[in-house]
Design goal:
The complex is a heterodimer of chains A (about 400) and B (about 290). Chain A has about 400 residues and is α/β, with parallel strands linked by helices. Chain A contains twelve helices and 15 strands. In chain A, strands 7, 8, 9, 10, 11, 12, 13, 14 and 15 form a nine-stranded mixed β-sheet that branches. Chain A has a six-stranded mixed β-sheet with strand order 2-3-1-4-5-6, with helices on both faces. In chain A, strand 14 and strand 15 form a beta hairpin. Chain A is globular, with a radius of gyration of 23 Å. By secondary structure, chain B is an all-alpha fold. In chain B, about 75% of the residues lie in helices and about 5% in strands. Chain B has a two-stranded antiparallel sheet. In chain B, a hairpin with a 2-residue loop joins strand 1 and strand 2. The chains are: A alpha/beta (about 400), B mainly alpha (about 290).
Amino acid sequence: MSIRSHMLLVAGAVAGVLALAPASAQDAVKIGLILPMTGGQASTGKQIDNAVKLYMQQNGDTVAGRKIEIILKDDAAVPDNTKRLAQELIVNDKVSFIAGFGVTPAALAAAPLATQAKIPEIVMAAGTSIITERSPYIVRTSFTLAQSSTIIGDWAAKNGIKKVATLTSDFAPGNDALTFFKQHFTAGGGEIVEEVKVPLQNPDFAPFLQRMKDSKPDAVFVFVPAGQGGNFMKQYSERGLDKAGIKVIGPGDVMDDDLLAGMGDAALGTVTAHLYSAAHPSAANKEFVAAYKKAFNSRPGFMAVGGYDGIRLIYEALKKTGGKTDGDALIEAMKGMKWESPRGPISIDPETRDIVQNIYIRKVEKVDGELYNVEFATFEAVKDSGKTKK
Amino acid sequence: MTTLFTILFDGVAYGMLLFVLACGLAVTLGLMNFVNLAHGAFAMAGGYVCAVLVNQSGWPFFAALPLAFMVSALIGVALERALYRHLYARSHLDQVLFSVGLVFMSVAAVDYIMGSSRIFIKLPAALEGQFDFFGVGIGRYRLMIIVICGLLTVALQLILAKTRFGSRLRAAVDDPRAAIGLGINVPQVFAFTFAFGCGLAGLGGALSAEILGLDPYFPLKFMIYFLIVVTVGGSSSITGPFLASLLLGIGDVAGKYYVPKLGPFVIYTIMIVILIWRPNGLFGRTAAR
């Protein structure tokens, strides 16, 4: 065989690959899933990844005749990584969606890329209000802190809680939670007697809790990111705040289903407002919880639900566009979409592309020997009240 | 006034905990002149051993604590014999790179085996809660930490100052060649000391899970605290790190209580001021070394 025929062979092979490439790109829809799979927020990433896998097991990996391919990337919740990974996914892998985003800074870092590339960014976890305003291509399936914080503020003011001390983590979602709670609680006649912002990386809550105790409030309003709630509750009871009659209230992040079982009886009686509890009494949820437990041997939390609904939104949007991946068409398809999620009925607000959902007031109780957030009041179809543009 | 005592009490407990966690590092760094940034990994190992024994095998907490010490010490011996001893004579940079590599491996390994979420150790009911002592709120768990760590400190000081092993160790550190000449088995002394330091870290890790939280990132998160304790205290004795731990513990807790806005900076401010005043730490040797 001469060199020439070798060259021909190579050329033929290259041509063949080139001819194949567009064809395979045509039938697989790629979704870039950017999540913190390592680092302090890794539990968020794992829950969402699990939920996405579960949904695809249950509903198949083909939609409108096109195969769905998930490309999972780990950003360790560092926004610089998020941006780089999003860029690689868009430019090299030619993804049609970017999704995930464990923390607010990560979701914001990817926003300009979504705008430039005109591809939908599905936020499955991060909860600061401003996120959806940063790009017309952002749709959120998780929650905003304004949703739960305003509700618990109203509820506290109406239910005999007069003085509240607040303890919030000093970063964007914490500040959101504090602002909206304060607004609604003081408007309802409540008084904030002590306000402490704790550093995000905080090993020991003891001194802050002592300050709370000394200000003698009726309740402590708490927001710490998923993962730190356990430490907080342990030290809260160690310091005897529960015996001093100080209740814990807050958005439900502190009482994440993921951590609740490990918190011990100190958590009993805590009242939080949140979008999801694994104990939500609906058929859809029972099925979801059972399937999730069976597949991953752990209880799904609100992060898992955000991921589950996020992938569902992508599936439904693709069905509506008939498998076309034009960004604008997909966003149009998502606007106003309504469905029954494990958390209850939800929809995508056509104006803000943010989620509209029920917020439940729940109390931690023992059900069959395990701790659960048991829902006892429902505020229906709550929109995000934290948008700057109305 | 009573609040002041509660703060002081919490600060002392926090400081004692830092001391047990970091004193092994003071030994390796100060006495053996080896920079072991992977010290926190041994603490984490102890914490997880204790958690698995108590939560999954149903051991009583107090029985699991010595085992946390033992397991960390054994891991310490194994690694010292297999890896660390080859680096004693190398430059500090090599030691830093090597031990940081170990930290990352330990983080990934624990994440893989135990999962990334924070875990807690189920405590006996007797250790939970707080009791009132003339109006001062005393946390039971923190009181236990102070007692255990206080006893350990006294024991350590006695071992170093009064026992034959203590004098061998000091001799081996001061002049290894002369020590060998006198028939002291220097590598063995070092190996034993290293293992003991690791064991202490393991015990510290088990004790700290309740207060600092235990997850696979423990060695990275607290590396800086260990280093602060050793640099502020000076690494030539264990009295230095002990006082430094107490100072930092009380400073940190009091700072967070009285000026919560500046809370996290207090510990670093103390460190900078002390290092400007005494560049070798509170009890450091002067540059003669």
